[in-house]
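Replying to the earlier thread about multi-chain prediction with a worked example.

Input:
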Amino acid sequence: METFDTLEVDHIIEKYGSDRSFLISMLHDVQAKYRFLPEDVLRYISHKLDIPLINIYRIATFYKSFSLTPKGKHQIRVCLGTACHVRGGQRILDSLERNLGVKTGETTEDEKFTLERVNCVGCCALGPVVVVDKEYHGNMEVSKVEKVIEKYS
Amino acid sequence: MNRLKSPKELEILREEILSRKALQKVCVSICLGTSCHAFGGKKVSEAFQSEIERRGIKNKVEIKNTGCHGFCEKGPIVVIHPDEICYVEVKPEDAQEIVSETIVGGKIVERLLYKDPNTGEKYVHESEIPFHKFQTKIVFDYNNKVSPRSIDDYIALGGYLALKKAIFEMTPENVLSEIKEANLRGRGGGGFDAGRKWESARNASGSPKYVVVNCDEGDPGAYMDRSLMEENPHIILEGLTLGAYAIGSNKGFIYVREEYPYAVENALFAIEQARERGLLGKNILGSGFSFDVDVHRGAGAFVSGESSALLTTLEGLVGEPRPKYIHMAEKGLWGKPTNLNNVETWANVPLIISNGSSWFRSIGTEGSKGTKIFSLVGKVNNTGLIEVPMGITLRDIIYKIGGGIKGEKKFKAVQTGGPSGGCIPEQYLDTPVDFDELTKLGSMMGSGGMIVMDEDTCMVDVAKYFTDFLKDESCGKCAPCREGLDRMSEILERITEGKGMPEDIELLLKISSLMKDASLCALGTTAPNPVLSTIRYFRDEYDAHIIEKRCPALACRNLVEYLVDETKCTGCGACVKSCPSNAISGKKKKAHSIDQGECINCGICFDICKFDAVVKR
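Result:
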């Protein structure tokens, strides 16, 4: 008995015509569904596509987007691209770390938030930028940090 | 949607679209690029929609949600065509007034016009605004005229006519020689001759052949490729199809970084539309030529933007680069001949085929033809995306288009070329911007990030920033890059902490030269550039850190102190509440003070104080 819905994973695999070269896209879809890459699902994909598990593991750990542990309900991404860096993005990140009580890359205990830093989200004119899920918060200031967190709590 | 079966049918369709559009006399074009979107552009668009409906003038006024107009600083931006009246920082509640005053009444709403902060002058038309006036928009020109999800908008502006011309009036050799004659150089970083790359792939034996769009725009501070892919995906598809025709390929790939979800969505949507119209897929326009495209998403790895690493990522493997002696034109994707170009390069192709190589060559400098899109960001007044002819000076970009430095600050440097580029100081501001000139200065064109830095930016910190960035992103396959970046990062770390040693600079130079010679791919060979260029132009800042244990820009955390200016402090207590280490104390409404023993130099009090009472030393 599997711990996940095999039909859903089958559906993801078939969406890409069971083409192995789309493995990264498939893993994206798995992660979107489960908020991380569960080991059982990876084993299942390895079996279905006949890819050695070690190769899938290598991809899952090489690329930054993938996580082998559950991510929070909301993803907070702090941009530290050059433009945000020179406009004080680091202080926004520090302040979020303190407010949430986690380090960058970690998830809060209640699994509500995962805090991440990214290297440019491509709207440098708004810097410093914080992206929560798909929403952009531009011209961020330390004094606005609490409000942003409250919005999603 | 009907599938077009001949070139004639494309022409008929275009006529139909144009006559349909002619009925709508006024077009409200609302920028929904990422920045304007973040400023609430969607709500503005909805407000216009409902106001137009309420007045029952829907058949006369077209509302168009377009891509980025470039002037991100002032979003949301609304332009009323045909008069091209431009309103900035528009709010949903302004829609009613704009409709009644401008669209119905033909009058201008003064308060929403752009006002030059330096001269106080107001501008009515978008193209008169200094930010736009000094640009030459050819590739980017479509962005504010097409809705990203409308193939009809693109066709109305002459889209896909270059493809029709190529496959019905030109041989693949003609297309290739046109690109070669145009002297189109790759816009992704290195500036390689695109025509020569195409020719090698065309002449290579082996089939099938592949063409690839590199939209893994990883350079922090650069977002022009994102903008093109999100907002005018058809121009890239048309360029790619032309390349495929010239090279003899029937299969293409678009590789988009994961951080750009809308670019993925819009590219997929455009591909579907083009297929339905018969402009992609089997037997394009009944010509017998077939070509199709897949979209692949990245997963957050900077090195994947390196061309050979990108191909291994496309194969579904770990994105590590391959040695350069294997030419991808001969052995690329799955060992087959492959041609890869960046988004902006592909977007130039339809323009060259439509207008001819001599038109393209008439823009730019001797060695660099055409235009280049830059993202002008950092400490400059007008930030946004700009398209300028090659050869324009850095000074014109920063002062004429960018409106100079933010606030009363002094210019220090402009960083170009992303993590592989360098910092250019004031004395070179009159350098013409092209591939070769920037390389001579120890920087490079890169994909087009242009980050302006003022006196508050510490150049050692900038070098450390890029080195740390690359340290994180190095794939670790070759030792010079992996170990070199680690050591450089350690050295820079101690310099910024005031623990640097006089011999550190010599050591940095030694590691740099080794990395340049021995790294496997361009990530490693160019990684020392930020360090080298800052040592070359800002040696005094390094010396201040190492010898005097001082950061002249007051930016390095361990070398500054925060103090309260008692004459300015009102005792409001805002800093007390936000201080994470409880280092600030004082009586209500009396001047406060900072306990230096407790202070962790985070700078939050400095940011938060509304009275400029916290000072750095």
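Chain A has a mean pLDDT of 90.

Feel free to reuse this layout for your own posts.
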